[in-house]
Amino acid sequence: MHDQRLRGEEASPGSALSRGVGRPVERELVDSVDGVAVVVEGIVVEGDHRGRALGFPTANLEPGDERGCPAEGVYAGYVVRADGTRSVSAISVGRRPTYYDDRGRLVVEAHLLDFDGDLYGERLSVHIGKFIRGQLRFASVEDLRQKIAEDVAAVRASGVVLGGETP
């Protein structure tokens, strides 16, 4: 299966997205043999810094067109930086229901495992792979923190392959 690419600010007439390539992806497709069904590309934008406060900093991308994103949820995948560096990542696609109502803007958030640094303003390719779980609203920040820790453990156990390389 080939990657479907979605560029946040670059979906223009004649692009793959405008031709209908970037369409919603079903969970079965995301759990495919090669493990990557969608690639979201864009510039890292500043978020609310909640991930960092929870102990799981994220690189936030705002997709220009939600139709190209997979179903809202948490995924195992990887991120490719502009210099080619690849990092296994826990990826959330959603509207952050613990903090916002269901009408909030869609955000793709990638927590790069074992990475400590600043990615603001950097162009990333977020390779969304194996579905872990759907989006949930949590009663407390501590409940959310615990679930994210479980998600990160699930990503580590998922065997994500970095575009042909093992982590």
How is this structure best described in words?
- With 167 residues, this protein is an alpha+beta fold.
- The chain has a single domain (4-157), classed as Beta Barrel (Elongation Factor Tu (Ef-tu), domain 3).
- It has helices at residues 27-30, 50-54, 141-157, and strands at residues 4-7, 38-43, 59-61, 73-81, 86-94, 107-112, 123-133.
- A seven-stranded mixed beta sheet has the order 1-2-7-4-5-6-3, covered by helices on one side.
- It is globular.
- Mean pLDDT is 74; it is low at 1-34.
Number of domains: 1
Strand order of the largest sheet: 1-2-7-4-5-6-3
Treating each run of at least 4 consecutive H or I residues as one helix, how many helices? 3
Q: What letter string, H or E per element, gives the SSE order?
A: EHEHEEEEEH
Low-confidence stretches: 1-34
| Number of strand elements | 7
Which CATH architecture would you pick?
A: Beta Barrel
The radius of gyration over CA amounts to 15 Å
Task: Return the structural class.
Answer: alpha+beta
CATH topology: Elongation Factor Tu (Ef-tu), domain 3
Determine the CATH superfamily.
Answer: Riboflavin kinase-like
Range of strand content: 25-35%
What's the main sheet like?
A: 7 strands, mixed
**Could you name the CATH class?**
Mainly Beta
